[in-house]
Specification:
This protein is an alpha+beta fold and about 200 residues long. The chain has one domain: tt1808, chain A, CATH 3.90.1570. The chain contains five helices and eight strands, in the order H-E-H-H-E-E-E-H-E-E-E-E-H. Strands 1, 2, 3, 4, 5, 6, 7 and 8 form an eight-stranded mixed beta sheet that branches.
Length: about 200
């Protein structure tokens, strides 16, 4: 079963993950300033992405520019992977392609030290992407353990481009922030993403 086949029920039953709701998990994270270029790109292309209405358009015109901005702000000390195959544990179904992975390593040729998994929500429904994202978070955790990385916390994001939901995995417990964040507050989104990487 690839990542995309997981839902919130079977990640608990098949992967042994406990999911806990946490109100305002990232509420205290401060927003950060961002470049005029990002502001211009989002102003110009967000209406187009929404009008087209596909995952691909939102990925290319909204999500990718925000992640590029994150990479720039962190002086290219992270790596971004889009549509990368990430087969970690086939017997448990932890295989397939990830929409986006963010690694704490600047190495861009191969995945090393994944810390954030980001899933584009299907049919503009955040809840439809939660199981897939959690499965990818578990895979990232296993990957780091196998490679003796000391990253003990893995973060996950499910987004429609317009709405963003953040989660945190520690051990076998996923804490899901009950608060959704919005594209209208790009500084807050970038602040949370930076917090997750740093």
């Amino acid at each position: 079963m690839p990542y995309s086949q997981f839902n919130i029920e079977n990640v608990q039953a098949e992967l042994g993950i406990q999911v806990q709701d946490r109100p305002s998990l990232f509420a205290d994270v401060a927003p950060v300033a961002y470049s005029d270029l990002l502001a211009q790109l989002l102003e110009k292309y967000t209406p187009l992405a929404i009008a087209i209405g596909t995952e691909k358009s939102r990925s290319e015109f909204i999500i990718a520019p925000i992640l590029f901005e994150l990479k720039q702000q962190l002086f290219n000390q992270i790596s971004l992977f889009s549509g990368k195959e990430f087969n970690v544990e086939p017997l448990r179904g932890l295989t397939g392609f990830c929409d986006f992975l963010i690694s704490q390593s600047p190495e861009q040729l191969f995945i090393k030290s994944p810390v954030i998994t980001l899933v584009e929500a299907k049919n503009d429904s955040i809840s439809s992407g939660l199981g897939q994202c959690i499965a990818e978070m578990v895979a990232a955790q296993i990957f780091n353990e196998r490679h003796q990385n000391e990253t003990s916390t893995i973060y996950g994001v499910v987004t429609t481009g317009s709405n963003w939901k953040f989660m945190r995995l520690r051990g076998n417990v996923v804490e899901a922030d009950l608060t959704e964040y919005y594209l209208s507050d790009v500084g807050k989104l970038l602040g949370i993403l930076r917090h997750c990487v740093e």
